[in-house]
Design brief:
It contains 4 helices and no strands. The chain is an all-alpha fold. It has one domain. The two termini are about 25 Å apart.
Length: about 80
C-alpha cells in the first residue's frame, strides 16, 4: 500500500512539475506577498473596516496556504529528477 501511494504521489508531482517549471513557485509566492500586503493596507487605503469584505483571519489562512504551496513547489524539480533517475 505504501509503495503504491509513493508511486502515485511521484506520478502526480511529475505531472504537476511539467507545468511551468520554476514559474509556479514565483507566482504563488507573489500571490502570497500580495495577499499579505492587501491585508495590511485594506483599512488604510479604502477607509473601510478590515472585516467589510474579507476577514483578516481568512486572508491569513489563504496566505499561509499559498506560502506552503510555494515551499512545496520549491524543491519539486529535484524530487522529480531523483524519482525518475
Amino acid at each position: 500500500m505504501l509503495t503504491w501511494l509513493k508511486k502515485t504521489w511521484q506520478k502526480f508531482e511529475t505531472w504537476l512539475y511539467k507545468w511551468w517549471p520554476g514559474a509556479k513557485t514565483k507566482i504563488i509566492t507573489g500571490l502570497g506577498s500580495l495577499g499579505m500586503t492587501a491585508a495590511a493596507l485594506q483599512e488604510y487605503v479604502t477607509g473601510l473596516p478590515l472585516t467589510k469584505y474579507i476577514t483578516a483571519e481568512t486572508l491569513s489562512i489563504i496566505t499561509a496556504v499559498l506560502f506552503t504551496l510555494s515551499y512545496w513547489f520549491r524543491g519539486m524539480g529535484a524530487r522529480v529528477q531523483a524519482a525518475n533517475a
